[in-house]
Fold this protein.
Amino acid sequence: MSIRIGERIADGTLYEYYDQPTDTCAVGPNAFRVSEMAKGKTIALFAVPGAFTPTCSEKHLPGYLEAYDDLRAKGVDEIWCVAVNDAFVMGAWGRAQGVDGRVRMLGDGSGEWARRLGLELDLSARGMGVRCQRFSALIRDGVVEQLNIEAPGKFEVSDAATLLSQL
């Protein structure tokens, strides 16, 4: 059973790659607890089956980059992109897409968080292993307020415009 509106988002660890050190983060992959990252924030979260895949690279991530200012104006503190890829891949994808800090590119390398959400997707028959279903969610202080889960192979309800209209 998957996560539902009104529930607290599943806790777990996601990884983010940093090209430059900060006061609190070293260069390379850094581990973050979902519960701590979401505390006191409004998050526009979207998850994709994989970095560098066609729909994800051509439509999903670019849509959130285009809507960045509008989402922020509606009270979104952070935008998260999550995929069952490691932090190195997510960092490289973010650089290739020109994310420039507008979206946190978070890796769920083993798919553990996707399983905790009940949103894992087995693409083993296509050579991709177990991934995450495509979805978007609005998270306020750790609680799911909106949830848009795509049907397999679709990209109709998890786009930035839909989530923006739900704010």
